[in-house]
């Protein structure tokens, strides 16, 4: 008489175990899917940042081939092409994205950037002019400043540089650009201040250090400034100062600076040696 109850309990247990098994399988599937997405995101991040640019282009090309309608993958490919120095292809890729449904104002900024890299300044200005003023980003204003510089619209470029700096926590690069703009205008003291400020944000920005030497040399100040530098950087900056002195006719000073560069460099400094030999006739 107890068998039916016992059988019912057995059947109930079987159903419960089955349900638990199904729930477990769902959890496993979800976990595997999540892990796959995380791995894909990690690979994408590596390709966008530290991978060899050619490998990144190949990787993102495969991604686009597998899913040609995914705009994010197209953006990754366009960015990789620009990073790899394939500016024409990168510009075409960004143009295709801009022409697609779902494109954004930021895509227009990237298209303008690609045009500037290809020295297409008027075209870049046309693209930037189509972006509404409400789209206020560091990248947009950095490009606006560069375009204004190319047109020698100094008041506009100064305004855009100042705005761009206020929109980023890493302004070293744009400070260096602004300093170079001032240098080309002949305002060497303002340029020097901007280059020094750039170096305070990024002590490894050698371009700003080299530009700082040029700004000082334009006033015939050839001594090295007090900024962080390695021994090799010091030699290279002495070389830059030496060449600048020679260009301005300060030949004896140039010889001394070039000799200091040769003596300072931790290895053989062929460029400085050739420059000194040329000065010595």
TrEMBL record:
Keyword tags: Signal
Leader sequence segment: 1-19
Keyword Transferase attached: no
InterPro entries reported for this sequence: TPR-like_helical_dom_sf
Name of the protein: Flp pilus assembly protein TadD, contains TPR repeats
Lineage, top ranks: Bacteria, Pseudomonadati, Pseudomonadota, Alphaproteobacteria, Rhodobacterales
A Pfam family this chain is assigned to: TPR_16
Keyword Signal: yes
